[in-house]
Write a structure and sequence with these properties.
Elements lengths: L1 H16 L5 H12 L4 H7 L9 H28 L25 H15 L3 E2 L5 E3 H4 L19 E2 L2 E6 L4 H10 L4 E10 L11 E11 L4 H16 L5 E8 L2 E10 L16 E10 L1 H6 L8 E8 L1 H8 L12 H4 L7
Parallel strand pairs: 1-5
Antiparallel strand pairs: 2-4, 3-4, 5-6, 6-10, 7-8, 8-9, 9-10
Helix pairs in contact: 1-4, 2-4
Bound molecules: 3,4-dihydroxyphenylalanine (DAH).
The site of 3,4-dihydroxyphenylalanine (DAH) has 11 residues, from β9 and β10.
């Protein structure tokens, strides 16, 4: 027993002075003390030589030794690894060019949305947001589309099966309603967002896409304000030479309603594949907010008037970036997306 204690004492000293500052030394230590043929194991083997009455005490001494040897190893591990083959000065060449970091590209829909939004922001519009899962009232009824109104069929709607009153919004016009309900006037907002329609997916249409909605409500807002605002937008967006034309149209939530075309910004109006040789490209719907809509949201239609407009983002993006298939926008194909690096 005395022998064993002395031996262990000697090994403890050895462990204390064992150099373990590099990974290689640490491995040597592990093999020597903790390995399957190492000292700890061997010394445990000596238990059989200990007299039965001393076994208990010997077991304790051995266990303490084992823990000591292991603790030393664990403690040295962290620092030894970081010291592994320290680089010498000659090995670091600070003059080498850095590894290029690949930076991503903004998504073309984001680029287009930002362009549109920033133009209206300069006119004093602020950005508003609303839910994509909407109730029937905000998406239809409040927009002067009561139940069974035939114009509801203009937009094939995805309903939520658990609750037929819920749907995926078919347009961003729900945000108009939500803003008007807040009751803070005047309102001058621009609302970009994603919308959903149950349409067959093809190169030209998808079951989800993006729109930007605009709304301006105050006293004495007129159709002339609408025209001038949109005219400014078009010039900023497509250039000073671009012409606009308004065609009478119908939307339940505006009266009068119009659609706005711009002279084709690809061919300058001469006629090309993009404008189908008409010289014009349709880009948005607009009109004066219908009094029924104002009243539904608790706004006095005698005192206030307003204009609204809504445009898709995908279509102008396809024209501007020459993208021929709308599905490319949502496929996340890196070969497509990286072509927009550096684009604005
Ligand atoms: N909500 C219409 C659509 O999705 C677009 C639109 C037209 C919005 C005229 C408007 C508007 O605010 O005044 O087709």
């Amino acid at each position: 027993m005395q022998d064993l204690v002395q031996k262990i004492e000697a090994y403890r000293k050895e462990i204390e002075v064992f150099e373990v500052s590099t990974a290689q030394q640490l491995e040597e230590y592990r093999i020597k003390f903790l390995g399957t043929k190492g000292i700890v194991k061997a010394i445990f083997g000596e238990m059989k030589t200990v007299a039965p009455e001393n076994k208990r005490e010997a077991g304790q001494v051995l266990n303490e030794f084992k823990q000591f040897a292991e603790a030393r190893y664990e403690e040295a591990k962290g620092s030894a690894i970081s010291n592994e083959q320290p680089a010498t000065e000659e090995e670091i060449d600070l003059t080498l060019p850095g590894d290029p970091i690949e930076i991503g590209a903004r998504h073309p829909i984001t680029l287009m949305r930002n362009r549109i939004v920033s133009i209206f922001q300069r006119l004093g519009f602020s950005v508003a947001d609303g839910p994509e899962i909407e109730d029937d009232w905000h998406n239809f009824t409040a927009l002067n589309l009561p139940e069974n109104h035939p114009a509801r069929d203009m937009q094939d709607t995805f309903y939520i099966s658990q609750n037929p009153d819920w749907l995926l919004r078919t347009h961003t016009s729900n945000v108009q309603i939500r803003e008007m309900q807040k009751g803070k006037l005047p309102i001058r907002i621009i609302c970009p967002g994603r919308v959903y329609r149950n349409e067959t997916i093809s190169a030209r249409s998808h079951c989800f896409f993006h729109q930007v909605e605009g709304l301006y409500i105050d006293e004495n807002v007129s159709f002339a304000d609408l025209k001038q605002t949109l005219y400014f937008f078009v010039q900023e967006m497509f250039g000073k030479d671009v012409k606009v034309r308004f065609r009478p149209s119908y939307f339940p939530f505006t009266e009068p309603s119009a659609e706005m075309d711009v002279s084709c910004f690809i061919c300058g109006g001469k006629g090309c594949r993009i404008c189908k040789h008409s010289g014009w490209v349709e880009i948005l719907g607009c009109g004066m907010v219908h009094p029924n809509v104002l009243e539904a949201c608790g706004i006095d239609a005698e005192k206030y008037t307003g204009f609204a407009f809504g445009m898709g983002i995908e279509r102008p993006a396809m024209l501007l970036y020459d993208v021929t298939d709308i599905r490319l926008f949502s496929e996340n194909d890196i070969r497509f997306l990286k072509q927009f690096k550096g684009a604005t």
